[in-house]
Amino acid sequence: MNAHRNETKKSEELWQRACNVIMDGTQLYSKGPMIGVDGVYPKYLRKGKGSHVWDVDGNEFIDYTSGVGSVVLGYGYERVKDAISKQLEDGTNLGLIHPLEVEVAELICETIPCAEKVRFLKTGADATSAAARIMRAYTGRDLIIKGEYHGWHDWCMAASKRNAGIPETIHNSVIYAEYNDLKKLEELFLQYPDRIAGIIMEPVQLDPPEDNYLVKMKALCHEHGALLVFDEIVTGFRFDVAGAQKYFNVIPDMACFGKGIANGMPLSCVAGRREIFDRVQGRIFMSTTFGGEMLSLAAAKANILEIKEKNIVRDLWKKGEQLKEGANTIFRETGADLQCKGYPVRLLILSTYPDPRQDVLLRSLFLQEVVKRGVLMAWQMFPMYMHSEEDIRLTLDAFRQAAMICRNATDQNNVADRLEGKPVDWIEVL
Ligand SMILES: Cc1ncc(COP(=O)(O)O)c(C=O)c1O
């Protein structure tokens, strides 16, 4: 990490320009300055190679943002890069269908347990919106129960706090249910008989399913004639090449994939039982110019084959376990009030404080000290195949130093004073 200088001048200049011409300054909330300590964190990355990234000021970092979870193998991974370059020679988007659409669809149907048919789209939000429309068209019902975040589109943000611009007529068409709260689901099915089209939920986030939650949720849906959709935008190709549905052995009616499908190229899909697609085909309209864009499909094919052939997922779990165990040992040994939680393929550093204000300050201090030591992470950490043993060793060294600073700060009761910028500001939008 010798190229790391903690300089953010160019980042700050770009941000000033961005705020003048880009609403919110960023296209994705989770790339914005609020995810780190504003003023200390870099705001703009220029390059990623392997497991490292470089910011516009020339600082180099070991990276765990992993393209906001979209990169499983690593940045510029050879096999995927070659597939994209080769495809580029033959065009990016032609006026008729390309064979890659068929090949990648077949590959997904061979790989993902629930997938008998698919539709390709571009973003995670596209895929969950498609699933919502299919659920409603299939059941002839209007209500959808949703989990946390499924993208920015009207059907799901209608249930959020930031729902300006979404017609009031649909505000009550989607209901939020907390993960693991089976009782709430049972109550909703009783409260709205024959009105619930289905549930869309991540198969897992941070905490494991309790008391057979996934199995019971599926049974509940089917008992009431509703569909179960897993939002596997984050878990897909990471928990298992066949998704978290394989890992937990609970096969939903449909599932949505995005992020990890093409090692950072823009592709998503909704996949599910043939009978569901066949029943709605011809009655719903889904059609988009770039749905068959070939660079992303070529990337997806190379990415999925590589993950399968090299058993990449096993490696991700191993690296994630090293990080999680290493971090928690360090927090114990230093007495820092921090913890590393989550599944090894999707980790989170939290404080041990129940008070969110205290929590955010200590977490911010930890992130600040880690980024100053050349390790870039946001609120989640995603291991990539190209993270090396050396990366993990250096990361844990940085964690130890940051944890000791956190411990001293809590001992001296001056956590807030030690922050060199604005603390992490994860605005609740849901
Ligand atoms: C679980 C989940 N679903 C859906 C989405 C939306 O994906 P996208 O940002 O590609 O539209 C996200 C994005 O972070 C997500 O985490």
Note down, in words, how this protein is organized:
The protein has 430 residues and is α/β, with parallel strands linked by helices. It folds into 2 domains: 9-75 and 312-418, Alpha-Beta Complex (Aspartate Aminotransferase, domain 1); 93-292, Aspartate Aminotransferase, domain 2 (3-Layer(aba) Sandwich), CATH 3.40.640. Helix content is 40%, strand content 14%. The chain has helices at residues 9-21, 66-69, 78-89, 99-111, 124-139, 154-157, 182-191, 213-223, 244-247, 274-280, 294-309, 312-334, 356-372, 389-411; strands at 45-49, 52-55, 60-63, 117-121, 143-146, 174-176, 196-201, 227-231, 254-257, 268-272, 338-343, 346-351, 375-376, 380-381. The strands form 3 sheets. It has a 7-stranded mixed sheet with strand order 4-10-9-8-7-5-6, with helices on both faces. A hairpin with a 2-residue loop joins strand 11 (338-343) and strand 12 (346-351). Helix 12 (312-334) runs parallel beside helix 14. It starts with 8 loop residues before the first helix and ends in a 19-residue tail after the last helix. The model has no long low-confidence stretch (mean pLDDT 96). It binds pyridoxal-5'-phosphate (PLP). Pyridoxal-5'-phosphate is lined by residues 123-125, 128, 149-151, 202, 231, 233-234, 258.
